[in-house]
């Protein structure tokens, strides 16, 4: 139904070798961080999972990595499943954290599960926030939510029902926040790729509490 993916420069740290229910080590995982600057620098730990036999990742290196995200549930650690064909070894020392802040790009397709507004910083306007339901396409699919913040510049050209609950939408942006307790990522939207609006059911006059229209009324 939907998915979310990330792309950025990541510095790998400690390596782990998680196993599945049968005891098989399907991935090599490396700790890394997503750096967020929302007034102060915040470091959010993620795991980068590469194939056990085909990944080129090693610890204490810096890479450009693209991959699909599975955010899990409350109090869990998000996992980025590496697309090894797109991984680039940058062959540089560890990058200073401040230079990586708010640089993780995100592409997400999902169903709108909730809509709200909140004040924008500085200009007095309100941003619209949609919570998308994503589902990873991994062997054991994980459903998770992410919040997408849309400025008035993005929403000014949308129809009134474009952000209605139930619509399918594809968005691009950058990670700008993270709720640790619920493990919910917050993305500042830079572009809308496409959307599919769910047709609104037309209710009859009886369903809306009105009396049926008589033939005389129709012929007037």
Explain what you see.
- The protein has helices at residues 152-155, 215-219; strands at 3-11, 15-16, 27-37, 41-51, 62-70, 79-82, 88-89, 105-119, 126-135, 143-150, 168-179, 184-196.
- It has two domains: 8-94, OB fold (Dihydrolipoamide Acetyltransferase, E2P) (Beta Barrel), CATH 2.40.50; 105-196, Nucleic acid-binding proteins (OB fold (Dihydrolipoamide Acetyltransferase, E2P), Beta Barrel).
- The chain is mainly beta and 220 residues long.
- A hairpin with an 8-residue loop joins strand 5 (62-70) and strand 6 (79-82).
- Strands 8-9-10-12-11 form a five-stranded mixed barrel.
- It is 4% helix and 48% strand.
Q: Which structural class fits the helix and strand makeup?
A: mainly beta
Shape: globular
What fraction of residues sit in β-strands? over 45%
Q: Structurally, how many domains make up the residues?
A: 2
Strand runs, count: 12
Would you identify the regions where 5 or more consecutive residues have pLDDT less than 50?
19-24, 202-207
Count of helical regions = 2
Helical residues, percent: under 10%
């Amino acid at each position: 139904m939907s998915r979310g993916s990330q792309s950025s420069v990541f510095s790998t740290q400690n390596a782990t070798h998680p196993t599945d229910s049968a005891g098989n080590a399907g991935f090599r995982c490396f700790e890394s961080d997503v750096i967020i600057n929302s007034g102060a620098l915040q470091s959010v730990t993620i795991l980068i999972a590469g194939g056990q036999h085909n990944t080129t990742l090693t610890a204490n290196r810096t890479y450009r990595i693209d991959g699909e995200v599975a955010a899990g549930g409350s109090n869990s650690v998000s996992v980025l499943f590496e697309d090894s064909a797109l991984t680039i070894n940058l062959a540089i020392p560890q990058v200073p954290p401040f230079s990586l802040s708010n640089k993780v790009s995100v592409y997400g397709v999902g169903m709108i599960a909730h809509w709200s507004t909140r004040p924008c910083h500085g200009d007095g306007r309100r941003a619209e926030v949609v919570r998308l339901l994503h589902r990873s396409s991994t062997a054991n699919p994980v459903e998770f939510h992410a919040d997408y913040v849309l400025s008035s510049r993005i929403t000014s050209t949308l129809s009134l029902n474009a952000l209605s609950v139930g619509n399918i939408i594809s968005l691009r942006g950058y990670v700008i926040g993270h709720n640790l307790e619920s493990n919910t990522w917050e993305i500042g939207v830079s572009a809308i790729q496409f959307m599919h609006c769910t047709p609104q059911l037309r209710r009859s006059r009886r369903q809306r509490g009105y009396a049926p229209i008589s033939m005389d009324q129709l012929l007037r």
